[in-house]
Amino acid sequence: MSVKADSVTGNLVDRMARDIQAGVFAPGMWLKQIDLETRYEAKRMEVRRALDQLALKRLVRHVPNRGYHVHTPDDRQAEEVREVRLILETAAAGSVVANATAADIADLRALAQHFADLILEGTLLDLYEANIAFHAKLLALGSNRELINIVWELRGRGPSAPVTQWKTRARIEQSSREHFHMVEAIAAGDAASLRQLTADHILQKGQNSNCHSDDMTNPS
Question: What is the pLDDT of residues 144-180, one digit of tens each?
């Protein structure tokens, strides 16, 4: 595959993955290649390559002679992914606090506020994108690039957000408060608090804790 073709496929994979994680394509939904070609203005071969890449990421499953459908992780897999994320993301807390500048903290506050504003005026997809932006900025402050890459790969294995996450407005509001608490812990240089807040956020402890996790792959 040429460098140009590889770049096109990579961009298409990213777009399709974000749509899957945002619930545009529901778990179990069959993906028709002709519809994907139209939606993404892509060629059939580009769509096929992207679907194969998404299958490797376990976002879709390929059924011979039938096609591709959005992967539906079972409860055991989702719980195990949460456990691994818990280990990795709490481990990153120390370097996030150490590396954060005043400008970084201001950016995080703005991203947290944007998410909060969308609770009243945005769609679930808007919230999902805002949540990704907040956590992308936060994780980017970590020092271990490989750890961060693994976290994002793990987030791609979870259930799509609007379908299984944020089932009540109270849970969304709780997630928003947790974003602000994380920013304040970073501003205070308190790595221990950030670790605990991160753990609670992934596990969705606190209000409506019986709901599923709102992580990035799942929003969290």
Answer: 999 999 988 887 665 444 445 566 788 889 999 999 9
Which residues does 204 contact at the CB level (< 8 Å), separation at least 6? 171, 174, 211, 212, 213, 214, 220
Indicate the pairing of strand 60-63 with strand 67-70: antiparallel
Give the pTM: 0.70
- DSSP strand pairing (30-31 vs 60-63): unpaired
**Sheet of strand 67-70: strand arrangement:** 30-31, 67-70, 60-63
Q: What share of the chain is helix, strand, coil (3-state, %, to 5)?
A: 65, 5, 30
- Residue 28 region, left (φ>0) first, then alpha (ψ -120 to 50), else beta? left
Q: Which residues of the chain have pLDDT under 70?
A: 1-6, 73, 156-167, 205-220
Strands (E), the chain: 30-31, 60-63, 67-70
Distance between CA 111 and CA 49 in Å, rounded?
A: 34
Query: What is the pLDDT at residue 209?
Result: 42
Q: Which helix (H) or strand (E) holds 173?
A: helix 169-187
